[in-house]
Structure formats: C-alpha cells, structure tokens
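Here is one chain, start to finish.
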Amino acid sequence: MPQPRFAVLGAGSIGCHLGGHLLAAGHDVTLIGRPAAMAVLAGRGLTLSGSGRPPVHLPPDRLALATGPEGAAGADYVLVTVKSAATAAAARELAALLAPGAVVVSFQNGLHNPAALRAALPGRTVLAGMVPYNVVTSEPGTVHQGMPGSLMVEPDGTLVTALRGAGLAVEPRTDMPAVQHAKLLMNLNNAVNALSGLPLREQLGRRAYRRCLALCQREALAVYRAAGVTPARLGPTPPAVTPYVLGLPDAVFRRVAAASLRIDARARSSMWEDLQRGRPTEIDALQGEIVALAAAHGLTAPANARLAALVREAERAPRTWAGPELYAEISGSRR
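Its structure:
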C-alpha cells in the first residue's frame, strides 16, 4: 500500500512540527503557510529541535511549500493547524480542492474547530486532534518542542501509524470533546504566560502567576459543571484538583507537580509568540470561550474576561505584568 500524501494547512510552529516530522520520515508533505513564513523556509530550510532528540535539519530542496490552499490538492490527509479565527475560511477553500476520500484532521486550539470543518465539508471525514505540548518557533526556520507529550487524535490506523513512524507519540482517543475541554483548561495559561513575558518554566515556577491560572480554571470548571461537561483527565492530577495544586507555595508545588515543570528553558506559549510578532492572538478561542459559555448559562467569568481584555490591549500596545500585579488586576482586588 503506498504511503499517504499529507498537506499541512497553516504551517506555523505546530504545522511545521507535525509536517516536518512526517517529511523527515519519508512522507510526501506539502507545507502551506503565510508567504513570509514560506519564504523563510525556502531560504533556510526547516529545523526540528527539542524533546530530547538531536536536531533534524530539512534543507530547502526537500520542502514542498505553498502559500495557498491549492497545495492541499491531491493530499490523502490534510492537517489543519490554522488559528481558530481562520478555520471557516480554510474550510471553504478546501471544499473545492479535496481529493476523493481525503481525511481532514484538526490539530487546533479551542473547542469548535472540528465541528466548523464538518459543517463546511459535508460528507467528508473530519477528525479531531490535539497537541498537548509546547512548540514554538525559537528562531526563523526552527521549531522547538519544549516538553514531552503524546498527540491525541480520533482513531485512524493509517494516520496513527504514519505519525508514530515519524517519531511522534500518539494516543488514539474516542473522547475528543472531553479531551478538548481539558486542553482548554491547560491553554488558559497561554494568556498568563504571554503577559508575564517569561519562559513557561519560570512563569509556572512563580506562585502569583499560577494563582492567576488557578482563578481562570476555577471559573472554567464552574462553567463546565453548568454546561454538563466533564473534562478528560490528561495527567496525574484530576482537573478539579489542579487549581488547588497551582496555588501551593513554590517549594511545595515543585515537589508535588515536578512533571509540570519538565519544560525546556526556552519554551514559551504560542500567544507570547503572537504578541512578539504583532499577530492577532487566539484569546477569543481560549478565555473568550469560557466567557461566552458562562454567559450562555447565566454565569460570569470575570477573571477570564479581564485577562482577555488585557491580551487585547497587549495586541495593540504590548506590556508585561508582574505576577502579583496581574493577580490583583484579574481578581478584582485592585478595584
């Protein structure tokens, strides 16, 4: 049986990480991204680093690059890694281009991207996936995996085999909605990290910043209960207990949650990267999602709402916040 052909729509940090590993393993992969990003790859090639593996460099002549959705024509699998705000447009563009039998896989943040793709691509197979670990563009042409972890995706034998063959750990899941809600709880830290200006390991090592995340997660968990949602357990700590653990003193947290600090010193959130590059963030699909879900159930999520507002302000005029200052701002203790 011939190897499947892949296209990655939205070849930023995550897209280049996934597509680069598949390409390094010998698969036919087309990376589709912004013209400026593809120009960097055309000049420098793509380097994959991190997660305890030696760096792998793919020279420019090994890369198939495109700047428009036509790059997905003929692919057996299209991995969608665009920002959530671009999903609907991406789906419309794909509708006329997908090969018969092509499978679309969403490896995106947020809760609604697989549903949006299915709505725009009737009759097509659309799978939900999730990347639980940090990947960031550490320098032009280099994507760096900052922590270990396993991809999660709805079962598909060919896809799982290809990803595993590319050296990526994969866990097939039949409960992806619960997984996505759990990932959203984790991703509420993206905004905290972005506003801290610190690497993830340093930020998570400071109690004041963790208290900001715990406050956001408590609101989210209350909203989930009202919505009848039970998030999946993705690590050693149940989601309901995580806010308590986050609030522990630093020395205790380091002992209790040592696995949470197994993060490369260079790792930062994708939202930090967006702010640094002057790009719109995904705050509406993260804190904004909690605020919207709260409103739909007659609740409020003031800490999440305030943090979302601060990120939107930072999109216009970047600034960093000390931990105690940020906690006072989103908890209301300053007002």
